[in-house]
């Protein structure tokens, strides 16, 4: 079993950055086959920096990637229709099963 010099929080931050970069690229690209090639390039960039173990260098790499992501964010990202902000969010929600008016209060 190999041990990593980085914490779980670091791994979660890198994975989150990777996913956000993929999702942002998908927002910019309409065709899946074109996006797939871009996703491979993003993965290759992460793989190139996989063996960097100096915490300062890793911090600089992450900061640069976060800045590049913030600079290239899509102005109108895709939102799943059922998610908050989507076109179908809370559409046709079921009525509450409790009485609307408490007749026993009067």
Walk me through what this model shows.
The chain is mainly alpha-helical. 52% of the residues lie in helices and 0% in strands. It has three helices and no strands. Helix 1 (8-28) runs parallel beside helix 3. It is elongated and about 70 Å long. The termini are far apart. The relative contact order is 0.10. The mean pLDDT is 89.
Quick take:
The protein is mostly helical and 106 residues long.
Class from helix and strand fractions: mainly alpha
Mean pLDDT: 89
The secondary-structure element order is HHH
Q: Radius of gyration over alpha carbons?
A: 22 Å
Strand content: under 5%
Give the overall silhouette. Answer: elongated
Poorly predicted tracts of residues: none
Helix content: 40-55%
Biggest pleated-sheet summary? none
Continuous helix count: 3
- Count of distinct strands: 0
**End-to-end C-alpha gap:** 69 Å
List the helices and strands and how they pair.
Elements: H1 8-28, H2 32-48, H3 55-71
Q: Which features would summarize this protein structure in a list?
A:
106 residues; mainly alpha; elongated
């Amino acid at each position: 079993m190999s041990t990593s010099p980085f914490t779980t929080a670091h791994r979660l931050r890198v994975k989150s950055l990777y996913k956000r970069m993929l999702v942002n690229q998908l927002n910019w690209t309409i065709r899946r086959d074109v996006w797939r090639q871009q996703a491979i390039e993003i993965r290759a960039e992460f793989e190139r920096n996989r063996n960097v173990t100096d915490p300062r260098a890793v911090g600089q790499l992450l900061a640069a990637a976060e800045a590049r992501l913030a600079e290239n964010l899509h102005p109108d990202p895709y939102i799943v229709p059922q998610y908050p902000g989507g076109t179908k969010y809370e559409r046709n929600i079921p009525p509450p099963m409790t009485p609307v008016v408490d007749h026993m209060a009067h």
